[in-house]
Design brief:
Length: 149
């Protein structure tokens, strides 16, 4: 199974309604192509983990690279695993209401690992940072079970 992590800058800020529309479409498509993952969006930045069949993840990432809503798309990690990290999430999302430095800190930590870790260890070390950042963000907003997918 392929895992891919990327970050990008939103060409223009997205409203909560625009994010919700994007998530509805993504979740439907992802279920059909057996892709799971996590999307973080805050302060005009995306960070996303995609995982699933190699062809599906590769094709989806290419689509994202050419999506007019994204700029500065950077692939941070691409590798393979036996088990999914986000098996129950067709696309988990939570608005990042954390202080602006929270997302910046996650990006800095991920970049540091990418610079130093061996290829096999990168995702193993990055996944907990992303998961912790997501979990920490829940502390800033009231968690509603119907908003977490």
């Amino acid at each position: 199974m392929k895992q891919l992590l990327y970050c990008s800058r939103a060409v223009k800020p997205l409203s909560e309604d625009a994010i919700e529309d994007l998530l509805v479409q993504s979740r439907q498509r992802n279920r059909l192509i057996d892709v799971t993952g996590l999307l973080l969006y805050g302060h005009n930045r995306f960070m996303q983990v995609l995982e699933g069949p190699e062809a599906a993840v590769t094709q989806l990432y290419k689509k994202i690279e050419y999506d007019c809503r994204h700029a500065e798309v950077i692939k941070l990690y691409e590798g393979y695993c036996d088990l999914r990290s986000y098996k129950n999430w067709s696309m988990a999302y939570r608005p990042m209401e954390a202080p602006p430095t929270g997302l910046d800190k996650a990006f800095i930590e991920v970049r540091g690992i990418l610079d130093k870790a061996s290829p096999k260890k990168k995702f193993v070390r990055i996944a907990p940072i992303i998961r912790n950042f997501y979990d920490d963000a829940l502390g800033y907003a009231e968690a509603e079970s119907n908003n977490i997918h």
